[in-house]
Amino acid sequence: MDKNNRDTRKYAREMDKADRLSSFRDRFYKKEGQLYMDGNSLGLCSLDAEEAILRVLNEWKERGIGVWTEPDPPLFTYHDYLAGMLAPLIGAEAEEVTIHANTTVNIHTCIATFYKPTEKRYKILVDKLNFPTDLYAVEGQIKLKGLDPRECMKMVESREGNLLNEADIVAAMSDDVALILLPSVLYRSGQLLDLFSITQEAHRRGIVIGWDLSHSIGAVPHRFDKVQPDFAVWCNYKYMNGGPGTSAGLYINKQHFSLDAGLPGWHGNKYETQFQLNTQFEKAEYAGGWQTGTQPVISMAAIEGSLKIYQEAGIENLRQKSLRLTGYLMQLIDSKLEQYGFSIINPREDAQRGGHVALVHEEALRINEALKAAGVVPDFRFPNVIRLAPVPLYTSFEDVYELVERIVDIMDHKKYEAYEKKIGLIA
Ligand SMILES: *Cc1c(COP(=O)(O)O)cnc(C)c1O
Known about the structure:
Helix content is about 35%, strand content about 10%. With about 425 residues, the protein is an alpha/beta fold. A seven-stranded mixed beta sheet has the order 2-8-7-6-5-3-4, with helices on both faces.
């Protein structure tokens, strides 16, 4: 089919007809006429998530304290159950995964576990483009060791402001670097790094390396059986659709199960002796040993519902559809939006991009407001980026087509000029 034919609604509908994942859309709460392109910030609620939450709520109603041990699965070990469902998404073993706290706390526990600065190796390598909380946590951990972040935090810079160059990352792995923390997918530009080669380069130099998968988990399959990083963290409310503020994810490579947990707590104790409530902590020898205290199991139930959908749809199938949706979006942007001054800053190659398209425009802030008024849920990242995530579980090709039509309408009629240049509380 030639290019012009692909720029039509008819083509989008044909793509939807041929899409074997199209029915999953009906498992999500979607507003009629709304184009939800923000699943990389907060995924939508599914019927499955709702059902799981109500089931757990009911268990609590009926059983009181029995909620911890009587249901199937018992909620006392619910994180183990969820880890078993989630591990295949990243190619890890179930015992290497646990569900716990939030991403920031999990970074703290990992750095506190793995960062052992010596006279010669005392730096933590991070990148300038990472989500700020990751950098705050690293800085805090360096200070806790009584060290100076200005000396101990080494930043990989971006050459042009949006992307990282993998050669620059490798070149920064000097002899004084003890630990590396990097994002798998950059939250603004959507760049996907090569986890395998970067991890290999780090290990070749004796450096511990961990990944923040917040922007790839549930969108990009990982093969941790091959990558073999030391640790990883992620949140479960973006592509994972686990609900606002649900517990995050933590991966500890099984080679490290015998290490002390950085932030020990009674839920990391071996099950056999946990309720003996001894003053001596006995850490469990699997990722669950990094648990701290009692978990918010009601909200965690949403993750179970969502993982059921992942098991049915298959992460590889979802990745293929995601690449086609974002590819289609980029093609429409190229042919219909370039004339209005938009440009795409995410990498074009499939192997180097995650689940969203990052669009730059000098009027991005006001265009983002006009998009909201036009029934689109986009998101804006300071100072000039609009992120658009056509999530494969609930976005159709026609949605993508319609999205670009709405942008064209906003630009043709300069509708963004009706808005002020002001950022809201949650951009
Ligand atoms: C979303 C995101 C987080 C979120 O952190 P929380 O502590 O779970 O709120 C952290 N890091 C990155 C890279 C993210 O994309």
